[in-house]
Amino acid sequence: AEIWRDLLDVTEIGADDDFFALGGHSLLATRVISRLTARTATDIPLHLIFEHSALADLARRLPDPASWSAAPTQIRRIRRVRGGTTAG
In sequence order, what are the beta bridge partners of 85? Predict the structure, then answer.
């Protein structure tokens, strides 16, 4: 609900509210899934939000919160050099 509130700019979200009825669209759906993937540290397929667009319905299909990583996955900076890449 927090992610939806932020991206949809809606203050109140109910369990039965539909993402698309609240003004969501495909580009925002990709942002929702991206944030959920980061928060849960698991790969969540984009089609879930289209197939289960009510908040409670979508939540039931997410991994158990007990298995979520405490911190988001760190992304390493890659330094580009001529002819290839090196970690840096």
Answer: 80
- Domains along the chain with CATH numbers: 2-87 (1.10.1200.10)
pTM for the whole structure: 0.71
DSSP assignment string, 3-35: HHHHHHT-S---TT-BTTTTT--HHHHHHHHHH
How far CA 61 is from CA of 33, 69, 79, in Å, comes to 12, 17, 38
pLDDT of 59 strictly over 60? yes
Please tell me the distance from the alpha carbon of residue 25 to that of residue 76, in angstroms, as a whole number. 31
pLDDT digits (tens, 9 = 90+) for 12-55: 889 999 999 999 999 999 999 999 998 888 889 999 999 999 99
